[in-house]
Amino acid sequence: DAAFETLLVETRGAVGLVTLNRPKALNALNAALIEELGRALEAFEADEAVGAVVITGSEKAFAAGADIREMAQMSFADVYLADLGGAWARVVACRKPRIAAVSGYALGGGAELAQMCDIVIASTTAKFGQPEITLGIIPGFGGTQRLARAVGKAKAMDLILTGRMMDVEEAERCGLVSRVVAPERLLDEAIEAAEKIAGFSRVAVLAAKEAVDVAQEAGLTEGMRFERRTFQSLFATDDQSEGMAAFLEKRKPSFRNR
Ligand code: CO8
Question: Which of these, 118, 111, 109, lies nearest to 88 by C-alpha position?
Answer without folding.
Answer: 109
